[in-house]
């Protein structure tokens, strides 16, 4: 059985729901404050809820936030591959969710930002597995160094999936180029794809981004417009979205990525996998919180009614 091995960062999200973000130097009253596990956990939970075996190869801390992360992983049946880091707690992300569903983040890194080569040496990867990388890891110098030394040892298999994330514009260029060169799949939202390629046209950005990899394909997520799927040897194909009433966009891209990976692991072709992922993301945005991905049965039930 294929395993999704996530080498990113599971953190704790403090989600603040507000009418609008405060002006600089200002203040607003939050309608709600929720503390939940998020970050890399969102993708892992999304894939696990689709029935895929998942393992977390990132670090987690000693302290109350680390405890929350471990409990959340256990609840989803996700395997821990690393011991707790003894001298630091897991990091926290403040997520500000506005009335229209838009969200902004402030991240305070913790144990997850201290990954080393010795930590990755504990991770046994099989040829049939899937490895998930995120731009957040490349933003942490220790993690980036460890991952860039580890990746070449994977050989041509397993499949490596990369999500550049919202920090893509500030990532080290050499590290980003090395990961793109090894990535079999890239999943990015339209803004991230534009930052990587300079193109505001998601279809063109998908094709241009694919040209920068040696992989099979690129998915550019376009929110209410669905996604663009670019495959090696072909142009970009638009994949329509599942229409949904947006409550919270936080974690929608992660739900999409996790569902897409799980469908590939089932042996599904990329186009139907992208359609499935669009439905998973559409269901996720109807719920509040970062890790709101639906189960396999929920997506199947929706498609059965469509």
- Helix count equals 11
Helix-strand pattern: EEEHEHEEEHEHHEHEHHEEEHHH
**CATH C-level:** Alpha Beta
Say which CATH homologous superfamily is assigned: Ribokinase
Structural class: alpha/beta
Main sheet: strands, sense, barrel: 9 strands, mixed
State the end-to-end distance.
30 Å
Total beta strand runs:
13
Strand content: 15-25%
CATH architecture verdict: 3-Layer(aba) Sandwich
Provide the number of structural domains: 1
Spatial order of the strands forming the largest sheet: 5-4-1-8-9-10-11-12-13
Helix content: 25-40%
Please tell me the overall pLDDT. Answer: 93
Could you tell me the radius of gyration in angstroms?
A: 18 Å
Please state the overall shape, judged from the principal axes of the Cα atoms: globular
| Stretches with pLDDT under 50, minimum 5 residues | none
CATH topology: UDP-N-acetylmuramoyl-L-alanine:D-glutamate ligase
